[in-house]
Write the structure tokens for this entry.
Amino acid sequence: MHTLSRNDLEHAARQVYQVMPATAQYRWPLLAERLGCTVWVKHENHTPTGAFKVRGGITFMNWLRREHPSVKGIVSATRGNHGQSLALAASAVGLRALIVVPQGNSQEKNNAMRGFGGEVVEYGRDFDEAREEAARLAQEHDLYLVPPFHAELVKGVATYALELFSAAPELDTVYVPIGCGSGICGVIAARDVLGLSTEVVGVVSTEAMAAKLSFEAKTICETASANTFADGLAVRRPVAEAFDIYRKGAARIVSVSEDEIAEAMRVYYTDTHNLAEGAGASALAALMQEHERREGKTVGVILSGGNVDRAIYAGVIG
């Protein structure tokens, strides 16, 4: 992936803002009181799809229509947020969107993808098997296979970081969840474009450690499973192009347990009255784990999405 320029990010932002407004970032006083540092929350739970990925969907579809004008539709694998993003963005430009999810995927996310105009196919035991089926369907139906990570997706996603850093350039550290990696790569790109020295810290689940293990081994490692309720973090093997970027650009990667994620979801509710899905709360969970190291600092956390099933949320919040 070529290094993104400020012009690239500002052009991407103009495309994003044709579909949605910028999201807010707020300094929440109760979080500051709780954690002993100034906490800026970037509210990607307030996009039209309830998660940050819609930004990448918008820029990717613009690129696809420009570079591959004969394409009739797209296919991709997802646990939910990427799929909602692509369904909304594809429908907006008149393309078919076929979305493959693992069996037993969140029914609420599946319904949301259908609501945004996507056709949902359930296949396989996890994201990686769904990804293989998406590749097969692309051949069978002559659809464009959208990867989980692509330069155009990163360009769109980086616009949230551009907004955050423009509002709070003094951030000491930003915590970012890692699934397939577009979020952390977007934050690194925006930081570098703006010439900031902010430390970028990735966050994974203790049940899906592939990115952390790979980062520490300096080579890609795969795990046998990724059984976390934070489905946006449930990846068994890092995407190589994303790994190349965060291996160089991240300060470190922190792992948080299921209990720590659940506690961060509760804290988001009590301190800000915001709904966070598991992956969305993971960055705050990492800051809560490390808050003594951050005392007196100004810290950003990415609330990457709020798309959690009601039954799961009720179990966490109860």
Remarks:
- The first strand starts at residue 25 and ends at 27.
- The chain has a mean pLDDT of 95.
- Strands lie at 25-27, 38-43, 73-77, 96-101, 119-122, 144-145, 173-177, 199-205, 252-256, 298-303.
- The two ends are 44 Å apart (CA to CA).
